[in-house]
Specification:
By secondary structure, this protein is α+β, with helices and mostly antiparallel strands. Helix content is 37%, strand content 20%. Helix 3 packs across helix 4.
Length: 505
């Protein structure tokens, strides 16, 4: 390594710190000798460490410091010593002792002195009277060692105390606010071979840190030596403001659908059983509803449904309406269908659009919907999730159109060519298919389901042309695009995840 080039790159703070490093190791001492604040010295040391001129080592020490009472006892003497000073010549009542001690000290001293058999207690005229015993001499000799300990240059490192001092420390720790023991961290500096070579060579001459307008005007810059800048050195990472990664992804998905000619549709999160399931030809008491595991709402408990549409759907369930189907053959419950729940599938929005006066034929519609189903939370499942839902309404549509649409979605939104279409079952579509894509870490993941709406769904709503319907788990697609292994990271509050996850798709 070229030492001269390295010296030329040193910052003014580094130039002040380096010369004192052969005499000092502690940060406090270094900053004092360099004439810098500790924060400036620490910054210079970190820069020098980045240049491999020195190593910063952290020492962890257990130290003892005097507490509030410890500082007071250092000045006035231990309370038990003051207690005994009052009664050293003759017995005294409690009032005389309380003049020298506060209430807390008085109570503590009685316990300590009694335990060590240094006082005799009697009662006279309703007051306690104390007299010193022969054991006082031995007690005071030991107490003197405690008072000498309090005179030490605190804070002191515990590992530097003698065995006897450690015993005194342990006894004082049992008492309030005399001694406080804490863990202290300190920085220690160790020069590397490069650092030693620089110190040996010496840092000579003045180096300018910046080029000023005054230098340019006068031309004085020509005779000056400027500090070199190391563009390869580590610098702090800056995190600029950006939109949350999943929110950005959903916005891009919306823009792509609109660019493909789809019209956005919407619907309420608190939905009725009717629009969420019944209009989709899901029998009211069939096990097919179990997979939805809906959260039902208590207030408001019911919704209003158009009588005409309700009657048509009721007939579709009971006898097939005007479709050639026999229906499900049970008695439809018109009150149950009005119950409110948290939307379990985005297909409810498609049903509402098909029944809407705003429906256009031919047309393509999509919606990004928030859905809710009871589920066990893991890397690929959440109880609340987003779906991308859509329909294509046009004369002459068939299963090949559906397959082409799903393959385009997988390539466009999941960036994968490894896809498979598997026959599936949905009460409201026939034929039905499920879309799977291969994640590089998680393997095959189901992205959603699709199919062609059955006549029992479309005809009660007044639709007499084929309708392709599809619903994709956009959360899982986002995992592909954002490089995530855990679906929970889409909604994470973890700053590290929020800062590092890419936002482009």
């Amino acid at each position: 390594m070229d030492i001269n080039k390295l010296i030329n790159k040193l910052h003014p703070l580094e130039r002040k710190v380096l010369p004192v490093l052969d005499k000092s190791e502690e940060l406090k001492d270094i900053s004092k000798k360099a004439g810098l604040k500790e924060v400036e010295a620490m910054r210079a040391l970190q820069w020098l460490s980045n240049k491999e001129i020195l190593k910063i080592k952290e020492d962890i020490k257990e130290v003892a410091e005097l507490g509030k009472n410890g500082k007071e006892y250092l000045e006035k003497g231990m309370p038990e010593k003051r207690f005994l000073d009052v009664i050293k010549d003759k017995a005294k009542d409690e009032d005389k002792i309380k003049e020298k001690l506060n209430k807390q000290e008085y109570g503590a001293c009685i316990g300590i002195l009694k335990k060590n058999s240094t006082i005799a207690i009697s009662k006279e005229k309703g007051k306690l009277k104390f007299k010193a015993t022969p054991a006082v001499k031995f007690f005071l000799e030991n107490l003197k060692k405690t008072e000498e300990f309090l005179k030490k240059d605190f804070p002191v490192e515990l590992n530097k105390l003698s065995t006897e001092e450690r015993k005194i420390l342990e006894e004082l720790k049992k008492r309030k606010d005399i001694i406080e023991v804490d863990i202290k961290k300190s920085k220690r500096i160790e020069l590397t071979d490069i650092g030693k070579r620089i110190l040996k060579k010496g840092i000579k001459g003045k180096v300018e840190d910046k080029l000023t307008s005054e230098m340019l005007k006068k031309g004085s810059w020509k005779n000056k030596k400027f500090r070199g800048y190391d563009v390869s050195i580590n610098v702090p990472v800056k995190f600029g403001g950006k939109k949350q990664h999943y929110r950005r992804f959903l916005d891009e998905v919306r823009n792509k659908f609109i660019s493909l000619g789809f019209i956005e549709m919407d619907g309420p999160i608190v939905e009725s059983d009717f629009w969420d399931m019944d209009v989709l030809y899901m029998p009211q008491f069939h096990s097919a509803r179990d997979i939805h595991e809906a959260y039902y709402v208590k207030d408001p408990e019911f919704s209003d449904i158009s009588k005409k549409i309700l009657d048509n759907v009721k007939k579709a369930h009971e006898n097939g309406f005007d479709t050639g189907s026999k229906g499900w053959g049970y008695k439809f419950d018109p009150l149950r269908t009005k119950r409110n729940l948290l939307r379990t599938q985005g297909t409810a929005c498609s049903a509402r659009m098909l029944a809407s006066d705003e429906l256009k034929i031919p047309a393509k519609y999509f919606a990004i919907t928030r859905c809710f189903r009871y589920d066990v939370i893991d890397a690929t499942h959440l109880p609340d999730f987003n779906q991308v839902e859509g329909i294509v309404v046009e004369e002459g549509l068939n299963i090949k159109h559906l397959f082409g649409l799903l393959q385009m979605f997988a390539r466009k939104f999941a960036d994968t060519e490894e896809i498979k279409l598997v026959p599936g079952y949905f009460p409201f579509t026939e034929p039905s298919v499920e879309l799977f894509a291969k994640h590089p870490e998680l393997g095959w993941i189901e992205l959603g389901g699709a199919g062609i709406f059955r006549p029992e769904v479309t005809k009660p709503l007044g639709i007499n042309v084929p309708v392709i319907a599809w619903g994709l788990g956009i959360d899982r697609i986002a995992m592909f695009k954002l490089g995530l292994k855990d679906i929970r990271d889409l909604f994470s509050h973890n700053l590290d995840v929020l800062r590092k996850t890419k936002v482009n798709i």
